[in-house]
Amino acid sequence: MGSRIVVLASGSGTLLQALLDSTLGTSVVAVGSDVSDAPALARGESAGAAVFCVRPVDFADRRDWNLALRAAVEQHVPDWIVSAGFMRILGPDFIEAFAGRIINTHPALLPSFPGAHGVRDALAYGVKVTGCTVHVVDEGVDTGPIIAQRCVVIEPDDTESVLHDRIKIIERALLVETLTQLIGAQP
């Protein structure tokens, strides 16, 4: 696969690992984070990808951080940027630089339950089915065009943690499948 992928992750990097373990693994050229000790950075390094960290606390404001993140990502000349558990909202300067090439996963069936607590919100609302979404990142919070979705039935005894773990399994597979199709569709 000839595409260059930069993955942004704030946490453990299980979505990143799904990409690394797939046929897309060699396409992941860099892993970036906003957290200097994010386990995702170690996963990326172990796979031979370049790693970088751009911490918001090191900048005067959100725009300066976004510009620094953009510069760090641009160094890797990505075809795609994957926000994989990256818990920051990307600003207009970043999105404009990579318009239409940033994808995100979300643990709910958007447009329902956007934001950081999609699983909790779905349970609180009492829906019987939730799932996961892969979408293009725009300037809103989980508002970009939907590329793919998969459903997950909510069981009567589900806790937030149990449900989220089940969604993550589906989310990893959906991300790999969707990104593989997007790369295959490139001219």
UniProtKB/TrEMBL annotation:
GO biological process: 'de novo' IMP biosynthetic process
Pathway: Purine metabolism; IMP biosynthesis via de novo pathway; N(2)-formyl-N(1)-(5-phospho-D-ribosyl)glycinamide from N(1)-(5-phospho-D-ribosyl)glycinamide (10-formyl THF route): step 1/1
Domain Formyl transferase N-terminal: 4-179
InterPro entries xrefs: Formyl_transf_N, Formyl_transf_N_sf, GART, GART_AS
Record keyword Cytoplasm present: no
CDD domains on file: FMT_core_GART
EC annotation from Swiss-Prot or TrEMBL: 2.1.2.2
Transmembrane segments: none
GO cellular component: cytosol
One of the Pfam families matching this protein, by short name: Formyl_trans_N
Keyword terms, alphabetized: Purine biosynthesis, Transferase
A molecular function GO annotation: phosphoribosylglycinamide formyltransferase activity
Catalysed reactions, as listed in the record: N(1)-(5-phospho-beta-D-ribosyl)glycinamide + (6R)-10-formyltetrahydrofolate = N(2)-formyl-N(1)-(5-phospho-beta-D-ribosyl)glycinamide + (6S)-5,6,7,8-tetrahydrofolate + H(+)
Similarity comment: family membership: Belongs to the GART family.
HAMAP family: PurN
Listed name of the protein: phosphoribosylglycinamide formyltransferase 1
Organism: freshwater metagenome
